[in-house]
Amino acid sequence: MTVVVPAEPVHVDTIAALLEELDKFYGETEVEPLDVRTRQINEALFGHPPMAYAVLAWDGEVLVGLATYSFLWPAAGLTRSLYLKELYVADAARGRGIGQLLMDRLVEVATANSCSRIEWTTDRDNAKAQRFYERMGVSQHGNKIFYRLDGQRLRPEGGR
């Protein structure tokens, strides 16, 4: 039986391993050393204040999926929204309803935190993810264009 629970500090090494699989899914060929990854996870999820949150899907002792999220404000009016950053199910566990379990938990989290919406993006070429969201009855919201500022442009000397 698969259970979905909030991430805890004892899960960091297992989260790091699943996120390495996620990076490879997105085409990365090199990843940071484990100590760097665990530090980054600890800072993001368990720092004060946390920069993000995660829920984990466990099949017994095996981590089979995760969803990471943050809260955004303002959303509609002065409400807040839950922003889903990553939804990932381990390759070996796909097709077993784990993605739906993770999304169901996010609905619970959003409701408990008085969010007016849950928002996310997916890559245009990730047809499997798009089909998954369509099966959930969620349609694409075409009113927004996604932008990204990264790399050298984030540094004051390289940006302008």
Question: Tags for this entry?
Answer:
alpha+beta, single chain, Aminopeptidase, 5-stranded mixed sheet, 160 residues, 5 helices, globular
What order do the helices and strands come in, and which of them pair?
Blueprint: E1 2-6, H1 12-25, H2 34-46, E2 53-59, E3 62-72, E4 80-89, H3 98-112, E5 115-120, H4 127-135, H5 156-159
Parallel strand pairs: 4-5
Antiparallel strand pairs: 1-2, 2-3, 3-4
Task: Describe, in plain words, how this protein is organized in 3D.
The chain is α+β, with helices and mostly antiparallel strands and 160 residues long. It has five helices and five strands; from the N terminus they run βααβββαβαα. Helix 1 packs across helix 2 (34-46). The longest helix has 15 residues, at 98-112. It is globular. The model has no long low-confidence stretch (mean pLDDT 93).
Summarize this, please?
With 160 residues, the chain is of the alpha+beta class. The protein has helices at residues 12-25, 34-46, 98-112, 127-135, 156-159, and strands at 2-6, 53-59, 62-72, 80-89, 115-120.
The tally of helices reads 5
Give the strand content.
15-25%
Distance between the termini: 53 Å
CATH class: Alpha Beta
Tell me the count of domains. 1
